[in-house]
From TrEMBL:
GO terms for molecular function: DNA binding. The keyword Repeat does not apply. Residues 12-72 form the HTH tetR-type domain. It comes from Halonotius aquaticus. Keywords: DNA-binding, Repressor, Transcription, Transcription regulation. This is TetR/AcrR family transcriptional regulator. Pfam families: TetR_C_6, TetR_N. The keyword Transcription regulation applies.
Length: 203
C-alpha cells in the first residue's frame, strides 16, 4: 500500500538515517544475511553510532518495523472521504504501481513479517498494525452500509478480506508478477462492485 522509499524522502536525524540504511541493507541481504556491518555499508557516518543507538540486529529491526508500520498507518486514507471514495482509494493503494521501489518495500516488509512465526515482539507489532487497518476499513464499510452505499452485513469480515489481500499482494510484488497482480485487481474490483456496493449504487 505504500512506497517504502517515500518513508525516507525527508530523512533528518541520526535515527532516521540508521533506519534508512537498515531498510536498504535488509532489501539487499535479507534477514538471515543482515549484519550491523552490512548496515554500516549503507550508512555514511561512523558505524559506532549504530551500536550507540542499538544493542543488536533485532533491536534495530524492531525499531525499523515500528517506524514503517507507523508510516503505513499514517497513509491510510482519511475517513473524511465518502465511503465509496475511501474504498476506491484503498483498492488503488493495494494494487498501485508495481515499480522497483514498491517491490523493494514489499520484500522488506515480508522479511520482517516472516519473523512473527517465532518472535513475539515482531508478532505483536504486526498484529497491532493489521488490527488498525482492519478497524479503519470496517468502520468505513459500516458507515457506507448505514448510508445505503454498501450492502454488507458483516463489515469486520469484509475488512478482513481487504487485509488478507493487502498482505497477499505484498508477497506477489516480490516476484514482480504484474500479470497476476493485474488479474487479481480486476477480480477484487469485481467483488467491490458486485458484492460490496448496494444494488442502488451499481446502477
Amino acid at each position: 500500500m505504500a512506497n517504502g522509499t517515500n518513508f525516507f524522502s525527508n530523512t533528518s536525524g541520526t535515527r532516521e538515517e540508521i533506519l534508512e540504511s537498515t531498510f536498504h541493507a535488509l532489501c539487499e541481504h535479507g534477514y538471515a544475511g543482515l549484519t550491523i556491518s552490512k548496515i554500516g555499508d549503507h550508512f555514511d557516518k561512523s558505524q559506532s553510532l549504530i551500536y550507540h543507538h542499538y544493542d543488536n540486529k533485532d533491536d534495530l529491526l524492531l525499531d525499523l518495523l515500528e517506524y514503517i508500520l507507523e508510516e503505513l498507518e499514517s497513509q491510510v486514507p482519511l475517513s473524511t472521504q465518502s465511503p465509496k471514495e475511501y474504498i476506491n482509494e484503498i483498492v488503488e493503494q493495494i494494487f498501485g504501481d508495481t515499480d522497483s521501489s514498491n517491490a523493494q518495500f514489499s520484500k522488506a516488509v515480508l522479511e520482517l513479517r516472516a519473523q512473527t512465526a517465532h518472535n513475539e515482539e515482531y508478532r505483536e507489532l504486526f498484529k497491532r498494525s493489521d488490527e488498525f487497518v482492519r478497524k479503519q476499513i470496517a468502520l468505513v464499510i459500516q458507515e457506507g452500509s448505514e448510508q445505503g452505499v454498501f450492502d454488507v452485513n458483516q463489515p469486520k469480515q469484509a475488512a478482513a478480506l481487504f487485509q488478507t489481500v493487502i498482505v497477499g499482494i505484498q508477497g506477489q510484488r516480490t516476484t514482480d508478477d504484474q500479470n497476476m497482480i493485474g488479474s487479481t485487481k480486476a477480480e477484487f474490483q469485481r467483488y467491490v462492485d458486485q458484492c460490496l456496493l448496494s444494488s442502488a449504487e451499481r446502477k
